């Protein structure tokens, strides 16, 4: 922190973003784990974010606080100094495998509702038959629903706003992921985490995580809990953050920041900063 103040945040995207180029230590750690078998999608996103993190630091740019959207919490935990790189690679690779298996066993999807009132979306999911939940509260005007395809259709018919089906492999952050959660929970219980060197804001509730146990609990509960990115951004702003750097390939989180209409906060992608 410069002068003891929290001014700059690094944020890390999750599923739905593009897996980026992987170089250096991030690439070596991935290849040590997967060899020549191909890099799983979630691992490519994680490693791409970690690579951008390292490059920002090499350029002399350090965060005062970090946060990650869903999968991005693993990169955030690594950036905070809590999760080691090798453990992060292993956990994310297993997360990818387990969630793909759950998606095959319990098919579903996700739809972003643009311009819909979040409370109306929640009511529609609670009143719909079938398995469907409000999964991501991304911005004040963007909420994502997740669940069985027929239940998704019933919800989207009831609420106003533009409907955008997401290109994801399953119904993430919904009860359809429950099978994957059990095994992931065991993996997270066994991994050694360090006390964070810098604070991390949890994506399920916007809480500031300052202990290893807090980071572990956040990673454990994220697969079934909704992503409350609105709470994350509001927490970052309350802490005093005025610069938000996105360590991701396509600027998803940077674009979402526009919906918060804060002229005193600058959001930039790592690519913009490093170019």
Question: What is the strand and helix layout of this fold?
Answer:
Layout: E1 8-12, H1 24-34, H2 41-58, E2 65-68, H3 72-79, H4 85-105, E3 109-114, H5 118-127, E4 132-139, E5 142-147, H6 149-158, E6 162-165, H7 178-190, E7 200-201, E8 208-209, H8 212-221, H9 229-239, E9 243-246, H10 252-257, E10 266-269, H11 270-274
Parallel strand pairs: 1-2, 1-9, 2-7, 9-10
Antiparallel strand pairs: 3-5, 3-6, 4-5, 7-8
Helix pairs in contact: 1-2, 1-4, 2-3, 2-4, 4-7, 7-8
Q: What share of residues is helical?
A: 40-55%
Report the sheet-strand fraction: 15-25%
Strand order of the largest sheet: 8-7-2-1-9-10
Q: What is the CA-based Rg, rounded?
A: 18 Å
Order of helices and strands: EHHEHHEHEEHEHEEHHEHEH
Give a count of the beta strands, DSSP E runs of length 2 or more: 10
Number of domains: 2
CATH hierarchy, class of the largest domain: Alpha Beta
Low-confidence stretches: none
Gross morphology is globular
CATH topology of the largest domain, anyone?
Malonyl-Coenzyme A Acyl Carrier Protein, domain 2
Main β sheet profile: 6 strands, mixed
Give the name of the CATH superfamily of the largest domain.
Malonyl-Coenzyme A Acyl Carrier Protein, domain 2
Q: What is the overall pLDDT average?
A: 94
Give the end-to-end Cα distance, rounded to a whole number of Å.
Answer: 24 Å
Structural class: alpha/beta
The CATH architecture of the largest domain comes to 3-Layer(aba) Sandwich
Q: What is the overall number of helices?
A: 11
């Amino acid at each position: 922190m410069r002068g003891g103040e929290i001014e700059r945040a690094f944020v890390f995207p999750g599923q739905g973003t593009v897996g980026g180029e992987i170089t250096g230590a991030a690439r070596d750690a991935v290849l040590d784990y997967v060899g020549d078998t191909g890099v799983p999608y979630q691992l490519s996103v994680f490693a791409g974010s970690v690579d951008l993190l390292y490059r920002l630091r090499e350029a002399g740019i350090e965060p005062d606080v970090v946060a990650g959207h869903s999968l991005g919490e693993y990169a955030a935990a690594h950036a905070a100094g809590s999760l080691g790189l090798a453990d992060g690679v292993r956990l994310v690779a297993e997360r990818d495998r387990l969630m793909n298996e759950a998606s095959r066993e319990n098919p579903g999807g996700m739809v972003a509702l643009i311009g819909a009132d979040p409370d109306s979306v929640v009511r529609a999911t609670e009143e719909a038959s079938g398995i469907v939940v409000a999964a991501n509260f991304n911005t004040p005007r963007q909420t994502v629903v997740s669940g069985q395809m027929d239940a998704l259709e019933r919800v989207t018919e009831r609420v106003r706003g533009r409907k955008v089906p997401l290109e994801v492999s399953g119904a993430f952050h919904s009860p359809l992921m429950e099978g994957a959660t059990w095994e992931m929970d065991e993996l997270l219980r066994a991994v050694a985490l360090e006390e964070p060197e810098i604070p991390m804001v949890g994506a399920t509730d916007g809480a500031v995580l300052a202990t290893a146990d807090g980071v572990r609990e956040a990673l454990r509960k994220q697969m079934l809990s909704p992503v409350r990115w609105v709470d994350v951004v509001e927490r970052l702003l309350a802490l005093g953050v005025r610069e938000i750097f996105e360590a991701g390939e396509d600027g998803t989180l940077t674009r979402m920041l526009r919906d918060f209409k804060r002229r005193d906060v600058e959001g930039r992608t790592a690519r913009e900063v490093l170019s």
